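Hey,
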Amino acid sequence: MQDRMKKHQLNDGQITDLLKKASVGTIATIDENGYPYAVPVHFIYNDDMIYFHGLPKGKKINNIMANNKICFQIYDMKGLILDDAPCDVNTEYESVVIMGMAAIVKDQKLKATVLSEIVGKYTSHLKETKLPDNMIKSTAVVEITIKECTGKYYK
């Protein structure tokens, strides 16, 4: 483990707080040629799982179906720590990196629950709106089981 990581670790509570408040995460998968493929997603953190939604077809879904090992990352840049020397400027931040396994959610009840929570997180004024069944069926929901999770900060 890097020295900075040892000195600047987020504890479990801080990691949970960051996962709950972050608005965008990046999911990294491996494509059919062995290249990493990373894209930003809206997500929720619930019951020690990460969930995100998207189209039911595409590169991200194909990659997950072929190889369910993923990396998920969030980053909150708080600002720059300025100095008189350009090389001494630093960044105040918090970040979380998760290694895990992704699976397409098939259970319609779980999908509906997750999609409602995503709506509540990003569009709180629509939180009580019932989602149409056809929308639930035609939207992919991915569940990430966390195998390893680390968080760090600098200030």
